[in-house]
Amino acid sequence: MVLFSASVLTLLGFIYWSTAGYMSRQADETIKAEIKGLAERYETDGIGGLTAQIADRLTAQQPGDSSIYLLADRQLNPLVGNIDRWPRVREDEQGWFNFQLGGSATKRIHRARARAFVLKGNFYLLVGRDMFELEDTQKLIIRTLSWGMAITLAFALLGGVMMSRSMMRRIEMINRTSREIMSGDLTKRIPTNHSEDDFDALADNLNRMLDQIELLMDGVRRVSDNIAHDLRTPLARLRRGLESLRMSDVKDESRQDLIDNAVNEADGLLTTFNALLRIARIESEARREGFDRIELQPLLRDVGDLYGPVAEEKGLVFTLACQSSMTLFGDRDLLFQALANLLDNAIKYTPAGGNIAIGLEEGSRRVTICDTGPGVPESEWDKVFQRFYRLDHSRTTAGSGLGLSLVSAVAKLHGIELSLGSNDPGLCVTLQMPA
């Protein structure tokens, strides 16, 4: 409100200076013009012509006319004019007399402004204007601007209060929602009024952040539940084996088997935790220091050389179609691990007699891995990349459910768009490489 009022005050001050100042300058120019005219009359007709000219002008004056004339002798005694004495003030630096008129019972005191010059023969001529009209006009302008300023302040105060209340109401909605979220209700969201203003933009950003936080919290809970389910069984087997080892009547050959089983269970647990740590490091993008320009064709051939014999041993037809050449800036070891995980899943779930194909399309910069296995239901496509998520909800098959999570983390690190599709029958995994 203060800033707005100061701006309006500056504007009104400029308006006053423009109007009142213009009227004052116009009055001065009028006085100068009259002096010039009277001086020319004096030059041509002398003192008699000047006196007649002043008398004619005074006779022609109408009520309210503001012109002032006074012709005086060398002692400043009035000879002819419409004021009764010479002003008892000194002229200013520019040669102007500013004095007061009026003071009678019928006329208030007001200001007059005049200029004087000396005529030949030591006559003095004073020409000026009564400024009462200008003063009244200036007072009217000041009064109008004052009312305008007062109204402006009132509207500024009203608008400021309304804006402040509106802003505080929006801020209070954010605070109230934040308190509800802090109390444990992560489903709450900040309401918007669809005005597309800055508060709506802030609310939208906060709501998206809350969606991401809720998603992460759900992921943490889901991972915790899955860890409890997946690790409970091997830990129980490990404990049962160790309990058996404590029994003194266990034979030596049985004792060795129990030790081997315990070691295998411990290795499985370590493998699971190492996979979790590996995914966490990849998702934190701490592996970017290993990035370099790599060729995808040799990388796919190395993966194919490793898993091709495994697929053929299971009775699968393995096809590698990567005649094109494509480069990518990334970590070769991580990409190899991701492709290996995808091929391992394809080989694991494709029955004997099926087909597995790896393709590299240079024009579209896509790598596809397709199989003819049972596939993945479309409703599960977004879920299979979650940690510990498995289509076998009974968890009777081997595996930890971390393979595709690692693939997703590697793809995100490299800016690769990962998507699933149907091969009818089977599954196609597409890796859309970045430009």
Quick rundown:
The chain is α+β, with helices and mostly antiparallel strands and 435 residues long. It is built from 7 helices and 12 strands. The strands form 3 sheets. Strands 2-1-5-4-3 form a 5-stranded antiparallel sheet. A 5-stranded mixed sheet has the order 7-9-10-12-11. Strands 6-8 form a two-stranded antiparallel ribbon.
Q: Can you walk me through this structure?
A:
The chain has three domains: 2-138, 2-Layer Sandwich (Beta-Lactamase), CATH 3.30.450.20; 198-283, Orthogonal Bundle (Helix Hairpins), CATH 1.10.287; 288-432, 2-Layer Sandwich (Heat Shock Protein 90), CATH 3.30.565. It is of the alpha+beta class and 435 residues long. The chain has helices at residues 2-60, 132-182, 198-245, 252-283, 296-313, 332-349, 403-414; strands at 67-72, 78-81, 96-101, 110-119, 123-130, 292-295, 317-321, 327-330, 355-361, 366-371, 417-422, 427-432. The radius of gyration is 50 Å and the shape is rod-shaped.
